[in-house]
Amino acid sequence: MNSEELDRTFDAGEDVLAYFDLSTLKRPGLEPQGVEVSFPQ
């Protein structure tokens, strides 16, 4: 399936997740970070 066919399939409301390998999915720039929170007593 090329990108144009994928776009048409998605635009038609069909499920396109079967065409992706979700085990290798990465979201650059959204790595987990530690956060320190202080609450008043």
Secondary structure elements and their pairing?
Layout (H helix, E strand, L loop, with lengths): L2 H9 L30
Please, could you describe this protein's structure?
With about 40 residues, the chain is mainly α. It contains 1 helix and no strands.
Strand content: under 5%
Low-confidence stretches: none
**Count of DSSP strands:** 0
Q: Let me know the largest β-sheet.
A: none
Give Rg in angstroms: 19 Å
Class derived from helix and strand content: mainly alpha
N to C succession of SSEs: H
Number of helices: 1
- Overall spatial form: elongated
Measured as a percent range, the helix fraction is 10-25%
Mean pLDDT: 91
What brief labels describe this structure?
mainly alpha; 41 residues
State the gist of this model.
This protein has one helix and no strands. With 41 residues, the protein is an all-alpha fold.
